[in-house]
Design a protein that fits this description.
Number of strands: 9
Bound molecules: nicotinamide-adenine-dinucleotide
Radius of gyration: 18 Å
CATH class of the largest domain: Alpha Beta
CATH architecture of the largest domain: 3-Layer(aba) Sandwich
CATH topology of the largest domain: Rossmann fold
Strand content: 15-25%
Largest sheet: 7 strands, parallel
Order of helices and strands: EHEHEHEHEHEEEHHE
Shape: globular
Helix content: 40-55%
Distance between the termini: 38 Å
Strand order of the largest sheet: 3-2-1-4-5-6-9
Structural class: alpha/beta
CATH superfamily of the largest domain: NAD(P)-binding Rossmann-like Domain
Number of domains: 2
Amino acid sequence: MGLLNGQICIVTGAGQGLGRAIALELSREGAIPALVDRNPETLAHVAQEIARGGGSCTQHSFDVTDYDAYARTVADLHERHGRIDTLVNNAGINPATRSILDDTLEEWRRTISINLEAVYMGSKLVAPIMATQNGGRIIHISSIQGFASSGLCGSYNAAKGALIAYTKSMAVELAPYNILVNAVAPGFMVTPMSVVNGVDETTTPEFIDWYIDKRKIPLGRSGQPEDVAGTVVFLASNYCRYMTGQLLVVDGGLMSTF
Ligand SMILES: NC(=O)c1ccc[n+]([C@@H]2O[C@H](COP(=O)([O-])OP(=O)(O)OC[C@H]3O[C@@H](n4cnc5c(N)ncnc54)[C@H](O)[C@@H]3O)[C@@H](O)[C@H]2O)c1
């Protein structure tokens, strides 16, 4: 449709799952995604998919917690294109299985470093460029676990909750520069992340019974990555222009039930 023709959109964690779908959808709308992931093989695969669809993109393989590598990439992109329109802070990990009674400080720090600190770093690197060009979009991928808990993965939930607060803070700070900052909170999505200890949590009999058959998810299905990608396209596009500091919940209605 061309909602984002020629726009330079950085997507972190673009090698699979939500990031892959976001990059593909941005490309379908005419954007030139800058694909970031620590896994060069999956990045190359997504780049091929974009090329097959007639789009173009760039590939940048590094760990988002590596500030110097991140800074080099942003500087290269700025030099090459002269602008950066959107940053999608999507890369994340979910250690999932442990409570505060048996997790470790090391796990806590690793999760906070990828899911929260790297978001700060990427945002800090692109914000001055966006301020100079008087416009930009920063989109954080949070989670419904940022405001409700399944009872495990406290470090993940703490990081995702902090992202919701930080969205508001950044939105206020950056509004004078016409930089809109919003967040998306996906519910249960079918991605490689939903596979915990070798089991896809969205396909177990317990999940199907409670969330699908009994309609704990009112729309009666798990989310597909494309469901989030469309929301991100909206937030990056000019259809979103008087909205900043907001959290869009993409969960099939799950958080509307009790
Ligand atoms: N899958 C879900 O149900 C769900 C629900 C809510 C929120 N989310 C959030 O959506 C985002 C994407 O999740 P997903 O399900 O696609 O996950 P995923 O595990 O399928 O993909 C994550 C991608 O990020 C990359 N990545 C991870 N750490 C990185 C790092 N330090 N540096 C560079 N790349 C890194 C991985 O290589 C991978 O390609 C995450 O922030 C996640 O917390 C997912």
